[in-house]
Sequence to fold (792 residues):
Amino acid sequence: MSKAIDFFKKDMSSTVVSSYLTMNGAAAEDLSANDVVSLNDDNDVKKGLTPARTVEGKIAQHGSEEVFNSGSSVYISVTSIDSTHVVVAYQDGGTSNYGTAVVGTISGTTISFGTEVVFNSGNSAYISVTTLDSTHVVIAYSDNLNYGTAVVGTISGTTISFGSEVVFNSAYSVYISVTSIDSTHVVVAYRDGGASGYGTAVVGTVSGTTISFGSESVFNSGNTWYISVTSIDSTHVVVAYGNSAVVGTISDTTIFFGSESVFNSGDTYHNSITTLDSTHVVISYQDRGNSDYGTAIVGTISGTTISFGSESVFNSASTTYDSVTTLDATHVVVAYQDGGNSDFGTTVVSEIMDIDMEFGSESVFNSGTSEYNSVTTIDSTHVVIAYRDDGNSDYGTAVVGTISGTTISFGSEVVFNSASSGYTSVTSIDSTHVVVVYTDGGNSGYGTAIVGTISSGDTITFGSEVVFNSANSGYTSVTSLDSTHVVVVYKDVGNSDYGTAIVGTISSGDVITFGSESVFNSANSYYNSVTALDSTHVVVVYEDKGNSSYGTAIVGTISSGDTITFGSEVVFNSGTTYRISVTTLDSTHVVVACQDGGNSNYGTAIVGTISGTTITFGSEVVFNSGTSNYISVTTLDSTHVVVACQDGGNSQYGTAVVGTISGSSISFGSETVFNSGDSDYNSVTTLDSTHVVVAYRDNGNSGYGTATVGETNDTTSTDILGVVREDTTTNNTVKLIIDGIVDGFTGLTPLTDYYVSGDGTLTTDSDDKKLGTALSPTQIFLDSTDFVLQNI
Fold:
C-alpha cells in the first residue's frame, strides 16, 4: 500500500519552534515523543518542548541557550542516547576543523554540556552520528585525507571517549550518513570518489570500542549526491540519494540492494530520511524541478522494493539543509532553512493518517446496462453484487466477485427474479448467504426478498421469492442484524407512501419469513437507507417529504425476534436531502452521507451519536463541492469511512473520498476518481480496513455494470501551531504565540476572520485553516479553540 503526505505550513513568518538540523542531511534521532533538540549555526543548543506539550499555557518557548563550542562549527549532527542525554558531533573551526563531540545532559528545559573531546585530529567533514545503545555511538566522517572513516564513542556520565579510527573507504568520501541497525551493527552510506562517485554502502560491526567493516556494496552506479540512510529493522535499511531510494538487506557483514525507485522526476538536494515503522519511511528534500521548494514523500517498503505516494510541498520557497525526524509512527518534524523568509530556521509538523484512496483496474460484471447496483461483502476476498439487468429484460440478477489484491473477477450471472426488478439492495448474513430485497415488477411492484447461497467460490443459487409487502414498494434497503435476521425499510405505496420497516428471519438455509410491518415515518419517505448498530438496533435515514424533504433519522429497536419499534425522528439536514446513505461506525455512532439540496447539492456528511433510542448529530461537512449523485458510504474502521459518488462538478466521474472521524466531527482527504466516465448507481462495500469494492454503471462504457477495488493511502494533515512575531537569526529559537493578540500584520480588515492557506498565505477563505479575527489593520486575535494543536 502506498502512502501520501500533505504538510500544512504553520504561518508565513514562522521560525524555528523545535527541530533537528544535521548539516550533512543525515536523519537525526529523537529523544522521546515530546522532546527535540534544536541546533543553530551560532553553535548554541537548547532543549525544546513541542508546542503541543505546553497547551495549558499561552506561550510555548524553549529553554535557555547553551554554548557547546566557542568556535565556528559546521557539519553538525546530533543523536539521542536516552531520554536525558544527547551526543553532538561537529567540525570545530576553533581547533583546525578537528572532528569533535560532546555529551549534553537535559534537565527539564535546560541542557548542559560536558567536556569537548576530539575524535579526529584533522579536517573532519560530512559528519554523521548514530546511537548503538545508551552508552555507545558511532561517528562516520571524511577525515583529513578525505577517506571515509568511523569511530566508536563510549559515554560515561557527561564524558565521551573514543576507540581507534577505522577507515571504511580508502578514497575521497563525501555525503556520508550512518544509521544503526542494532546495538552492534551500523550501515554507512556515502559517495565513493574512488569509484567514479558511485553511491556505496558498508556494514560496520562494533565490538567494545572497536569497529570493523565488511565489503563495500554499490547501490547506485552513477554520480551520487545528498545521501541519507535509515534503518527500518535489524536487517534492512533504506538509502535516499539524488531523486531515488533503494532498500538494502543485511546478511552478516554484507549488504545487498534491491531495485532503485525514483521518488522525484527531477533533481533533489539536501535529502533526509527517517523511519516511521518497519514498512514506511519519509524523505524530505529540496525539489530543484519545482523552484527549490521543500518537499516530502512517504515510501512504502515491501520486501526489497520501495514505492512512493504523492509528493507534498511543506515550504513554498527555496528550502535548504532540511532534516526530517520521526516523533512516533504517525508524526514527523522537518527542520529547514527557509529561503523565502530570510533564511530563518523553520519547522513543520505532520500527522500521518489514512485519508486517500487508489483504485485498481475496472472489471465488467454485466455486459449490459445495469441499474440499482448494490454490493455486499461476504468475506475479505468475495463480494456479491445484485442489480437490474437492462440487457436482459430488466431481470433481477446477481454475481459473485473474487478479489485478488486490487483486481476483481466474476463468476456467472444468475437471475433471481425473471421480471423487472427495481430498488435492489443486498446484505450478507454470513460468509455463504445473502439476502436480496427488491420491487418485483412482475408482481405488481410488491416488496420481495430472496436468500442467496454462495458455493464453490463464485457460484450463487437462490431459494424462493417471498413477499414482505403486498403493495408497490420503493426505495428499499436491507441490513443484517445477525446470521438469521435482517431489517428491510421501504416506501409503502399501498399505505400513503409511508416509511415502513419489517424484520425478516432466515431459517433452513434459504427460507425467509417476515414479522409485522412497522411505520417509522407517517409521510412519503424517499431515499431510505438502514444500517444495523447491533443485533437489536438499527438506524434508518430518509428524505421526509412530510417535513419539507428534510434529511431525517430514527433509531429502531428489535424485540421478540421479529418486532421493530422506533424512537423519535431527528432532522440531520434542514434542507432538501437526496441520495442518502448510512453506515455504522460502532454500536453508538453512524455516518450519514447525502446530497444537500440546501447547499448547491453538494455531497455532505455528518456523524450521528446514539444513546438508547435517541440520535444526535454533529456538524455537516462537505466532501464534494459539486452536485453529488448516487452516494454510497461504507465503514473502514471505527474512525474511517469511504464515500463513493457521481461527481457533477467533474464530468459525472465516479469519485471516492475517505472520511476521518473524531468524536462527532468528520474531515475528508483528497477525492480520487475510480472511473473517468459518467458513473451512476454507485454502491460501495468494505473488504477490510484498507480495501473497498465499488460497483457502478459505467455510462462511458455502454452502461455496463462495472466494479473496481480501492485501497487506502496514508496522508498527512497538520494544523496551525501558532504565530512567531519576532525576527531571529537562522535556526534561532523564539516564542510561539498560540493564544492572544499578535501584531505586526498590515492591511487587515477589522472584525474579519483570517485563515492560512496550504502555502502559508494569509487569506479570508473559510475553506482554509482559521487563524483568528482581526482587531485592527495590524492585529489578529488568536483563539486556540479556532485550531487544533497536534497531540504529538
User: Anything to note?
Assistant: DSSP finds no helices and 63 strands in the chain.
